[in-house]
Amino acid sequence: MPDFVDQVVLHIKAGDGGHGCASVHREKFKPLGGPDGGNGGRGGDVILEVDPNTATLLEYHRRPHRKADNGRQGSGANRDGANGGDIILAVPDGTVVKDAVSGEVLIDLVGAGTRYVLAEGGHGGLGNAALASAKRKAPGFALLGEPGDELDVMLEMKSVADVALVGFPSAGKSSLIAALSAARPKIADYPFTTLVPNLGVVTAGDTIFTVADVPGLIPGASEGKGLGHEFLRHVERCNTLVHVIDCATMEPGRDPISDYEAIEAELKAYGKLEDRPRLAVLNKADVPDARELADIVRPMLEERGLRVFSISAATHEGLKELTYAMGEMVAAARAAAPVVEPTRLVIKPKQLGDTGFTVRRVDDNTFQVTGVKPERWIRQTDFTNDEAVGYLADRLERLGVEEELTKAGATAGAEVIIGSMENGYIFDWQPTLNAEAVHQGPRGTDNRLG
Questions:
Q1: Against a cut of 0.90, is the pTM above it?
Q2: Residues annotated as binding site?
Q3: Which CATH number fits domain 161-336: 1.10.3720.10, 3.90.550.10, 3.90.226.10, 3.40.50.300?
Q4: Residue 23 and residue 139: Cα distance in Å, rounded?
């Protein structure tokens, strides 16, 4: 089992709404005291919240299925059902939420306490007390609770750090972050020692900033080679890049300049990083040959517009100067960053004349009705109860569905699909089911459905 996970698919189910209750008040000498069925409770939401104390998505790798509580059913004596409890899922700062199927970015969660309702619980159904009217004084039915949202999402963590240390494997990035901060990453002299990004907090005068030790990159990392392609996204949020260059490597075909150019090529191929300020660190200056090589390549890197520092993570040589240089770059980047404004709630009113639904002809005598209200009403209807079906017909007629079906050319007996073609509710349309007909008959029946 891994101890660090930065990408995971999460299967989410919000709570279903509780059903409404169909009940009639009864007591001595008052056998029919009127409808008193309560409403169903609302289903719980699934909410993501940024938690500064959460640094990995490991918990969701272990338990990828999460479900909120359902709402309770209403009961007699006008007692409403309890609402289902929400579940709040803590995620690290810098988590991007995507639709697992389409890849569409749903939200980018940055900032402690930021919340996002990932899946909404279903509405509870109305009880018969709430459905009573002058025409229908004692309804013999109640509305069903709506199902909660269900979806699959991908959580992708991007480290929120000010400075990213980039370079070949074993260039000394882990040793450098350990020397600069209290972080204690695993360090060894073999490629890909670092398998997960490490974060360290560094202080330079009045500036406090975080440094990310990004796992080693190699040529082709942006195309999927090595480990770097999995962690390049952790560099995106960093406002400063520090090239850590190994001046003591004994590998054939490698030298500080080619290492720098190879890493720059990968960063450029990945994109999104062209505007980041950079500086270069020539590491392992405690080795005599490395110090000589650093003196040779320093002017070459400075010609490329880089500030260059010769350091030794082992002896701490040059670390103070490097720390203050990084602090200056971080402070400048923070000062230049635009002021973050609170998210504004945008209200989009419906266009004038918008009915809230559409009717389209599928073939000669088949029609499809789509829209929030008709599809919601279908989910709320108990089709085993004729009176409930009649109530649905009344609602659709008042909304104007029957009129639009007539305009579209539907005739009696036409096949009408409300909702999607795959999962919609199909029925044979009878235009006689309209709100002008007065409901008669025992409770739970409708004389129009005889």
A1: no
A2: 167-174, 192-196, 213-216, 283-286, 312-314
A3: 3.40.50.300
A4: 9
